[in-house]
Design a protein that fits this description.
72% of the residues lie in helices and 3% in strands. By secondary structure, it is mainly alpha-helical. The protein has 2 domains: 167 residues, UbiA prenyltransferase (Tetracycline Repressor, domain 2, Orthogonal Bundle), CATH 1.10.357; 139 residues. The N terminus is likely disordered.
Length: 314
């Protein structure tokens, strides 16, 4: 492999890099992409009406590619801070396997492909929402909010909340209250999810000079705000059942999971600042992933059962 001479902190690359396919896959942030694709698929299937299966597949492909493009652009811009954080130091750019120019070109090409393809083959609204999502994550969040305010993840979390709205628009070519509720569930879930992470990764963020909530407002304030946002997301997550586009199984599940999420948040809130809060913060972070995935999985299961019953009765 060719050696890469670079100064990541200054954002420059000198020389060439030699990357393989796995390095470019890593640029896509596949774990984040998988959640984006999953929530986008749920939004698509939850939408009323029918869409050609080929167009539905194109829609999901474009959501996936757009999410990957956002990840590549994020890694391009954040290469300097990724290099000093333990959690991100082995990413393709700081480890020298991919140059920043390659990542930027890759991200821009994927962005253009996903948006243009969605606009040409599906509809302009879904293409606009996808383009805005990529822009919001790469520019508003990565280039501006992340390094300037402890509210970075609150506002920036909108970028990860759009996929179900895009999936809904693929089918209906519209934005509805139902799709906005699916958006709000992810939007309100994001702060407690990431702030729980930041409680036990605060040293890394401090080293990278990222103004995460614990580093700016302190751990005590962060723990209280985690509880407040969990208090908000728990009832919002029940709205799909109340509004009638989710069934009773989802209703009971969302209430039970909401109470459990609040329980984890309360333990974090009541834990003393210091080492004693690390273990409950890690537990809450892990549960938060199960919480969001579980909500959308149960909703998806109900949708598929309902569609199967309709087909059987046809």
């Amino acid at each position: 492999m060719a050696l890469v001479e670079k100064n990541v902190s200054l954002g420059t690359d000198i020389g060439l890099s030699e990357a393989n396919a796995s390095d470019y896959i890593a640029l896509l942030k596949p774990r984040v992409m998988s959640l984006v694709v999953f929530t986008g698929l749920v939004g698509l299937l939850a939408a009323p009406g029918e869409v050609n299966p080929v167009l539905a597949a194109i829609g999901i492909l474009c959501i996936a590619v757009g999410a990957g493009a956002s990840g590549a652009l994020n890694m391009w811009y954040d290469a300097d801070i990724d290099a000093v954080m333990k959690r991100t130091a082995r990413r393709p750019i700081p480890s020298g396997r991919v140059s920043r120019e390659q990542a930027l070109t890759f991200g821009l090409l994927l962005s253009a492909f996903s948006v243009v393809t969605l606009g040409l083959f599906v509809n302009l609204l879904s293409a606009f929402l996808l383009a805005f999502t990529i822009f919001f994550y790469a520019v508003i969040y990565t280039m501006w909010l992340k390094r300037s305010t402890p509210q970075n993840i609150v506002i920036g979390g909108a970028a990860g909340s759009f996929p179900p709205m895009i999936g809904w628009a693929v089918v209906t070519n519209s934005i509805s209250m139902e799709s906005l509720v699916l958006f709000m569930i992810i939007f309100l879930w994001t702060p407690p999810h990431f702030w729980a992470l930041s409680l036990f990764m605060s040293d890394d963020y401090e080293k990278a000079k990222i103004p995460m909530m614990p580093n700016v407002m302190g751990a005590a304030s962060t723990k209280f705000q985690i509880f407040l946002y969990t208090l908000l997301v728990a009832p919002v997550a029940v709205l799909p059942w109340i509004m009638g586009f989710a069934g009773p199984v989802y209703g009971v599940f969302s209430m039970a999971m909401g109470l459990a999420f609040l329980g984890y948040a309360r333990v974090v809130w009541r834990a003393p600042v210091g080492k004693e809060m690390i273990k409950p913060a890690k537990k809450m972070f892990a549960f938060s992933i199960i919480y969001l995935f579980g909500l959308y999985a149960v909703l998806l299961g109900e949708i598929l059962v309902r569609k199967a019953l309709l087909l059987a009765g046809a």
